[in-house]
Amino acid sequence: MPEFDALRNDLLLRTARGERVERPPIWVMRQAGRYLPEYHEAKGENDFFACCRSPEIASTLTLQPIDRYDGLIDAAIIFSDILVIPQAMGMTVEMLDKKGPHFPDPLRSPTDGQYEQLMNRKVDVAKELDYVYQAITMTRHKLKGRVPLYGFCGAPWTLLCYMVEGGGSKLFVQVKTWIYRYPDQSKKLLQKIAELCVEYLALQVQAGAQIVQVFDSWAAELSPASFREFALPYLRHISKYLPLRLEELRLECVPMVIFAKGAWYALHDLCHSGYDVVGLDWLQDPAEAVRTANGKVVLQGNADPGVLYGDKDAITAVVQDMVQGFGGGKQGWIANLGHGVTPFVDPDNLRYFFEEIHRFAATETRSSAKV
Question: Using alpha carbons only, what angle is made at residue 241 by residues 53 and 11, rounded to the nearest 5 degrees?
Answer without folding.
Answer: 70
